Amino acid sequence: MSIYKIAGLIGVVLAIVAAFVAIPYAGVALAVLGVVVGWGMATEDSVRVIVSAVALAALSGTFGGIPVAGPSLTAIIANIGALAAGAALLIILRNVYGRIKA
Fold this sequence. Notes:
Elements: H1 3-20, H2 26-39, H3 46-59, H4 70-101
Helix pairs in contact: 1-2, 1-4, 2-4, 3-4
């Protein structure tokens, strides 16, 4: 198992735990873990990661109306969106760098 997959698994676990427990700087940790995941991402998966990050950010509040579980689901989806956003940011910056360098 690569460091990128381990970082992704830690990020998902942190996203779930942070939905139920207040963890200081959880957002920063998720973004940093997302950057690590993005560094190991294959170029053919770039579009999927970027679209997933946008979709998770846009749809994270959708489940807020569900009684009892809604706020927790919303927090989990938003936290996973932060993880995906870190990966997407690195992919975008890597593509910009590649275009400038070429």
